[in-house]
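seq as requested:
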Amino acid sequence: KIFLCWFLFVFVDKCRLRACKLTCIKLHSSKILASNIKLASGRMVAGTGPSIGGAVVVFAGISGALLGGALARKRGFTTTPPKARVDGKYVPFGNVPGEKRGDDPMTPTKVIYDPYFWLRDDDRKNPAVLEHLHAENRYCASKTGHLKPVAEDLYKEILSHIKETDEGVPYPYGDYMYYHKTIKGLSYRVYCRKKTGSDKEEILLDMNQVSKGKSYCDLGTLSMSPDHRVMGYTLDETGGETYKAFFKDVSSGKMLEEDMPPNTGSLVWGQDNKTIFYAVHDEAHRPYKLFRHKMGTSASNDQLLFTEDNDEYWMGFGKSLSGRYLLVSSGTSESSEVMFLDLDAHGNDDVVDLVMVHPREKKLLYDIDHYGDYFYIVTNADGAKNQKLMRTKIANPSKKHWEDVVAYDEQYTISDVTCFKRHIVVEGRHGGFTVVWYLKPESGKLQQITGFPDTVSSVGVGTNKIFDTDTVRVVYESMVTPLTTYDINLKTLDKKKIHQKDVPNYDPSLYECKRLVAVGHDGVEIPMSIVYRKDIARKPGPLYLHGYGSYGICCDPGFSASLVPLLDRGVTYVDAHIRGGGEMGRTWYEDHGKYLTKKNTFEDFVSCAKYLIKENYTTPEMFGITGRSAGGLLMGATLNMAPQLFKCCVAGVPFVDVLNTMSDPSIPLTCGEWTEWGNPNNAKYHDYIASYCPYTNVTRQDYPNMLVLAGLNDPRVAYWEPAKWVARLRELKTDDNEILLKTDMDSGHFSASDRYFYLREKSFEYAFVLDQIVRKTK
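struct tokens:
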């Protein structure tokens, strides 16, 4: 799970107000790498929140600003759209002296004029830039004031479907049951545990106390020492995704003073309860150095275990579920390598060295877990594009010793393997949906775990912290069925339902989800997942279409409490499973949705939209679309191609300046994403990227009404991308429709950390959409 975990996500029992429905697949805490999850996946659709023991759980978000913003309220409103001055720069592409522009940069360089370059301020302190963003917030507030009653109604309705005082599903870890809870009126989670068999609750961390006085506070990880006496946790207080580590003696409640630098947010304990492994970023916010720290000592004495010098590679680390091995990976989306440290044998040595499984090779991806004398390997070796399962003796781990466990079948995608002491569980995909299999180690045969209610659904392995067990925890959900947790007996494969997320005032029998299929511009079938209220939805009627389509990330069917008020107003919600995602396997992404085939992503989305209109699900006057981050790129490209199909668009933290951003290695994520988009400094990719980049291709035509959301401290999609895009749209568009920009001046890529603020943001977003495609909202 060390490297390929980029593409896997877990749903948790939160007030999951999602912009997209991520794959219902776990990232169990023993192996997970928070730095990889949050950073290596680039311009993702998700934000994160941790569970105890180092597990990172991923939840979705879309909005990037609070309604109006505090400054907008203080300074008053304006009905005139801000006009950004033209103060540009000729941006060079190719071989620039003194800069690492990747392999084979163009000579001579090309230059393209960027008229709004001045809006870029890496320090986020330029008074003129900040005033422009405040002016945009004031204008947005002035043009949406009439939405406040509707937004308030939506907020109350969303709350009515959320059990505000609630408790997560406890899971066993050591001698304790760990869980989190929420309390009505409080904005953050409280992390707790109980001794197994006891009702006495210990509060480990109350994020409501930790976050006091802070406008933003995100918990990166919460990790218990092996003896469960010391808790380590990390906090990001700006939204910039740089974390500070804290340590607490749980028995005494005393905070422990530790000298540790700002880090990537992940902490992994050694076996002696005194050793901590952590990683740091480089100047481009890339995780690149791994350290070993001894509690009570100076950080200057920390041992450097690994440095990734290649700017295109990202480093991550974690621990096998067995607890024996520290696993360290480095890679891109196309190549990876894994190293390990035997913590039992060498974890306390004065100087430790990592052992390489197999050094990086071009186009070779692999990930490992520990089972007995073997490492089990998920890999694309030997041309297995949709990946297969192999294994190797730990004593001889190099690739020449790898052997197939399950024969490769291109109809099935192998995504992950979880190894318990006596059992192996495999996750993957078939026919566009997620699958969980039990692998019989002695026979090498996969047996699917079945019997879940809905066909259009998601299933994946949940939080499992016990290595020596005959039970695996699995989570399931659909667009109409809330998150449901099962324990599976691995001897019999019998299922025991142990919990279903409580959704008040919700009757699942009123709603229906199903799969639709559109035909793409080149004849390829494009699946969609659709949900609506059976007794209200009409044809044609208002429809809200979501898309993402990048990094091989899967937007699988999942339940959203925040979506219910839209469905109850007759809105149909649709997810388009377009190329560039991984819903139909890795080839859906690698062969058909990246590099020089990236335009398939946008063409597929347009094809889905045309299908929904043709089949009378909606009309252009009742059609809203949304996408976030790389999904915002999808929005921008789609609106340049076919703006006439849509009434409105919500673009959250949109990655709309692909050409300029991907040419500049000083911008976070750039070098590591040359294997996703291509490098525009290279002639092979420059013209192709330039032909679809949303900002570059804004043209003189009509555009629909748009709400664009940004975060000032966003390290993934810098605020200036949506700001420049809005300025360019206003300059060139030929209609009277509104283009609104809201920038959250206190957060980053993942929106507000306060759950109630987040609900306010969702309510505002939905009010905007309803105002466009429904009008009558009660």
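The radius of gyration is 25 Å.
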